[in-house]
Amino acid sequence: METVFNPYILHVGIIGLYYAILASSWNVVAGMTGFATYSHAAFASLGAYVSALITLYFGLPILISLPLAFFCGALFGGLLGKLSLRLNGTYLALVTLAFSELFRLFLTNEDQWTRGALGLKVPLLWSDSENGVVAQKIAALMIFGVVLVSLMIFIRRVRRSRTGLHLRAILSDELAAASLGVQTEKLRVWVFSASSAVASLAGALYGHYLGLISPEMGSLSQMFLILAMTILGGMGTWLGPVIGALGLEILSEGLRDFGQHHVFLYALVVLLVFRWRPQGLLGGRR
Amino acid sequence: MIRCQQIRISFGGLQVLKGVDLSVQEGEVLGLMGPNGAGKSTLFNVLTGVHSPDSGTIFLKDQVVRLRNPATAAALGIARTFQTPRPLLGLSVFENVAVATADHDLAIRCLQKVGLQNQRDRDSGALNLMDRKRLEVARALALRPKALLLDEAMAGLTAVEMEEATSLICSLKESGVAVVWVEHVMGPLFRTCDRIAVLDQGRIICDGTPDVVSKNPEVLRVYLGEEF
After folding, report:
1. Do A181 and B75 touch (CB under 8 A)?
2. Are the beta carbons of B80 and A179 separated by less than 8 Å?
């Protein structure tokens, strides 16, 4: 039991769950609907900064700033979806990449509010003195776990609904789906909005868990990590992104003992998995 | 049933449709033919909301309709098939039809109408060309269409399959749907259609019965050839 309740193990679990939420929510827009966006990490960063700034500058409690971060993510995600209605493939990728980088640069340059690259100290989910470190981490683990489980239940319900059938139709052929009466434009905006909202909520929780956020939270390296986790687990599958995220996070931590060779070994393992299972670990299972 | 008036559309400097007037009544099959590049597919795309015309009006049951996108057209009862069938891959035959309607019984009836009921659980990607075309018709019928636009229904089919497809189109006519049928295979088109319109360089150059069209000198010159 001591091993399980080791603060370090719990921390790895929390970060793994954070990435599992991001990978699963990105999978809704990219894997289930076929819109490969590259702004998901930026939305996590948006949620973290919105929640942090609301608590810091308006003095509102975290219980209020978290839903506001969620709604900001939904709003800006929906706007991005609306603005990019006519874009697909490479062009959609470029627009979302540009949004992501612009937002990161905005956070870096507006340092009077965000403290730029120095990072912003964020109120913690609870003050240090309230409980022991282990109890706090267990509580955080449960919060991230509840968000992930709720998200997974929601995704499962959507997949089995008529909306899920329409999303699969869009994934297969957007024009053919539209000619059968599928409201492709509305669904696209809805999917962008819902997926971004979840990323923002996860980002806000992450910020309040760590107590420090920086613009690098929304960097492209973070985006590509989410992408690798989703593809490794199985794009478009229900459970794949969770397996991919937890697997890569645990692998990353497990290889730390190899010091400077850790990144090389990490990349090697990922490449080998892609070589033997290009469809991902759970690819082919819906 | 469906009528378009003075439809014009350009892409860049190229004017593809130059004031097209066309109408088709309930239970009527209108053939649409013309050389490649005449604007047939573009007209289909305008009538199904894929492209917005620069000017012109579309009427459905004498009401002006604005087709903002293909989903709007489908909701109004304008269904289509594609020149190259586009089954929704990864979905079963039944699911392909179920995308168009939430009515389970209607979906089954549409599959029965085209003879695909025994393949309802098959992956749509595993169907051959004729069955893919059948599936497209079943999906279109599931929208309970007022107008059905068929894009080269005979392309790539064998003689026997063409006969089957012709029977299917005749049965659509009997069910009261207004059918617009683009085709390059002349035999079935002239045997089946009530009227044929000929499009050339973005203009309708002839609109009449198959007999009238087959004798029109301009149609013979630009498309059918003198020996037709």
Report:
1. yes
2. yes
CA of B104, closest CA in chain A: separation in Å? 12
- Record the tokens describing residue B41, joined without a space: 């597919």
Task: Sort A90 into a burial class: Cβ within 10 Å, 0-12 / 13-18 / 19+.
Answer: exposed
Tell me the residue length of chain B: 228
Residue B179 CB contacts under 8 Å (≥ 6 apart), including other chains: B24, B28, B29, B30, B147, B148, B149, B150, B169, B172, B173
Q: Is the pLDDT higher at A285 or at B168?
A: B168
Residue A168 and residue B70: Cβ atoms within 8 Å?
no
DSSP string, A220-274: HHHHHHHHHHHHHH-TT-SSHHHHHHHHHHHHHHHGGGGGGGHHHHHHHHHHHHH
Q: What percent of chain A has pLDDT over 70?
A: 96
- B47 contacts: CB under 8 Å, gap ≥ 6: B2, B4, B58, B67, B73, B78, B147, B149, B180
Cβ of A177 within 8 Å of Cβ of B99? The answer is yes
Q: Which amino acid is at A265?
A: L
Is the dihedral angle over the CA atoms A229, A234, A239, A243 positive or is it negative?
negative
Q: What ranges in chain A are assigned the alpha helix state H?
A: 7-30, 40-57, 62-83, 89-109, 111-114, 133-159, 162-172, 174-179, 184-210, 220-233, 240-254, 262-276
Distance from CA of A229 to the nearest CA of B (A): 23
CB contacts, 8 Å: A181 with chain B: 71, 74-75, 99-100, 143
Contacts of B100 in chain A (CB under 8 A): 180-181
Widest CA span in chain B? 51
pLDDT digits 0-9 by tens, A113-135: 889 889 899 989 877 666 688 88
- One DSSP character per residue, B96-112 reads HHHTT-S-HHHHHHHHH
Indicate whether A176 pLDDT > 70. yes
Q: Supply the ipTM of this predicted assembly.
A: 0.89
Alpha helices by DSSP H, chain B: 40-47, 70-76, 93-98, 104-114, 129-141, 159-174, 186-192, 210-215, 217-219
Average pLDDT over residues A209-217: 94
Yes or no, beta carbons of A179 and B74 under 8 Å apart: yes
Q: In whole numbers, what is the pLDDT of chain A averaged over residues?
A: 91
> Quick check: helix, strand or coil at residue B176?
coil
